[in-house]
What we know:
- The chain contains 21 helices and 4 strands.
- By secondary structure, the chain is mainly alpha-helical.
Amino acid sequence: MEMGGDRTDGRLWPMRILSAHRLLWGGKAVSIGQMKVFPRRQLGFILLLAGSVLCCGCKKGSPPAGTSTDKPAQEDTPPVQLAQIAPGKTKKPSRRPLGTAMEAVRTRVSRAPWRQLEAMLAKALVEAIRDFSSDPNTYLAAGNGCLEQGNQEAAVQCFRRGLRAAPESLDLLRALAIALAADHEYARAIAVYERILRRRPGDRTARFNLAVSLSRVDRLADAQRAYERLLELDPDFLRARYNLAGLYEVQGKLSRSRDQWRQIIARDPEAPHPYAKLGELSADLGDPEAAMDAYAEAAKRDAKNPQAWLNLAGAAVGAGSFGRAIVATQQAAKLAPQDSEVWVRLGELHLALYRATDRRESFLEAVEATRSGVRLDPGSPTGWGLLGDLLEQMHNDSGDPKYLAGALRAWKHALELDPGQARISKLLREHQEDPAETPGELPTE
Length: 445
């Protein structure tokens, strides 16, 4: 192998190999061999080079959790969890970033030495950047590259080094806060966001991320105030309203949560999720009519979702509208014909309507729906329990003891499938039957 290059501490660097691995610092491509390397950092560069070689064939890592772009919530996929907003992406700092190299090394060494090797690689990267450039954009680009590869520790070190060179850089402060939050260092991220907001009180991204971080460390009252202040600055920030509504609900402030969902609906009237949440909260607040109306709007906007129709059916039962509940459940059964629980629920509604109206057709429809549910899932304890209820009703209507015997066998089987059903145990005791001794075959017709 041909050797040549700068001498450092009496040693020759293999320039042909080093020149083949090029890094991108601050938008300029340079080879490692062109860098000025001091002897005390030779080990770091060797490790970086080894990682780059090992990374061949490895898949690119995924972006760090907890970052997203500042975009409004989608209609059908509203935010269901709190998420940090990243200030934006930058160009990758290298063709084979450090995180990819680390991932390759991770698969080739045992778990114990990996931690030490990872720290050495991160330190080597920071040392190399410090010697090469004092431009803060260099640190920002390198840190963002580490962050994209999931190496939050190295990213934090890069951003901190950059802030030593440019303490007033808002871009570096924002990036540092994102990296700390991605590394679950929420308390430190909070301090950085507060530092940003002291300089830029109107920075809505920083205030949103501050509220998220506060909620992650259970400072709910502070998070609530941060969201409320943000909405004073920007009333149409829907993601903040989504999170604030959820925060109110977690704290038991259901009326205020309901008001937030109404504000969201006023700004985004075509999204189904806010109507579903409004229906849920209205039901919890004891307003079944409002809950039914809200769930109806949700089902109208999400007509192909069986759960939307089942929610409407449940609200209709709470409002005493069995007819509307049955229609909604039938729609759910059309959308999910293989879902046994939908058919069992339809059977329950028909049985309830029969007991309220003494309409024979409702009873026959209850029997047919329940049979369909049990056929689809013979292991459904709810289905067998309902089948026992239907047979007991037939016994009450006709006085024929064979129907009661069938009901006891169905209840016994339901209890075998789910021993925790207190209602079934009580029914068997009322009929003086020991569940362990009830004989006979199971009724299916």
